[in-house]
C-alpha cells in the first residue's frame, strides 16, 4: 500500500538466485487506497503470464503487507497453481486482519482499502500453508507490532515464523536482516510445519479467534489488563477496555508471556464476554 514496485523489485534482485525471471507488478499508488479486486486481477494476470512463459520452472513468491493479502486471495482462487509454488514468503502481512483498518472502518462499511485489510483471511491462508512451504517474517518495534501491523496478525499455522526486533513496517522491504531470513529459508528444501499440538493455550486462542468481530491486537497492551480467570496450569485470561471503549482479551501462559491478544468493537463486546464465560467452563 502507498508504494510502487521499486523497493520490492530491489529486494527480489537482492535475494533471487542468478538467472531468475523476476516479476514485480506495479499496482499504482493511488489504486492501493480503494478497491482490492482490481489489484487481485492485476497480480493474477501477471502470474498467469509468467506461468505460461515458464511452465516448468519453480516459483517463489515474496509479498509485503497488502501484497500478502492479495496473494492469499490469488492463490485461494487458483488452487491449481499451488504445485508450481516452491515457497511463499509473507513480510508483515496482516492476514488475520489489520487492527488499524478495523479502527478506520470498525463495522466494515467500506471505507477504502480498510474494508479489505480488516478482514480475517486465516482460514484461506492456512489451507495454502498446509501445502505450500511458507515463511512469515514480522517486524517488531513496539513490543507487539512493526508500528503498522501487529505481530499476532501475521502468524499462520504450519508456516515458518521469524520475528525481527527493531525492523519497522516500511523497512521489511529493505532491511538486510529480512533478506538474510529469506535466503536462509531458501538454503534447503522446506516443508510445511506439522500441525501444532493442542495445548490449553492453543485451544484458547482458537476459541477466541472464532468470536465474531474479533481482530488481532498488539500484545504490548497486556500490561494494562487485569486477570479475569486463572487455570490450574497458571494460564490466565486477561481483559482491558481502552479509552475508546474497545474491549481487549489476552491469553497469558504460565511463564507470564502473552500468547494472544485480540479486541472487539462496541457491537461485539457481548459476544466476547460470552466467549470468556464459556472458556471458563469448557477449558479446565
The CATH architecture of the largest domain can be named as 3-Layer(aba) Sandwich
Helix content: 25-40%
CATH superfamily of the largest domain: Alpha/Beta hydrolase fold, catalytic domain
CATH class of the largest domain: Alpha Beta
Instruction: Write down the oligomeric state.
Output: single chain
Low-confidence stretches: none
Global structural class: alpha/beta
Number of domains: 2
Q: What does the main sheet amount to?
A: 5 strands, antiparallel
Q: What is the overall number of helices? A: 9
Radius of gyration: 19 Å
- Count all strands and give the number: 9
SSE series:
HHEHEHHHEEHHEEEEEH
- CATH overall fold name of the largest domain: Rossmann fold
Classify the beta-strand content into a percent band.
Answer: 15-25%
User: Which strand order do you get reading across the main beta sheet?
Assistant: 5-9-8-7-6
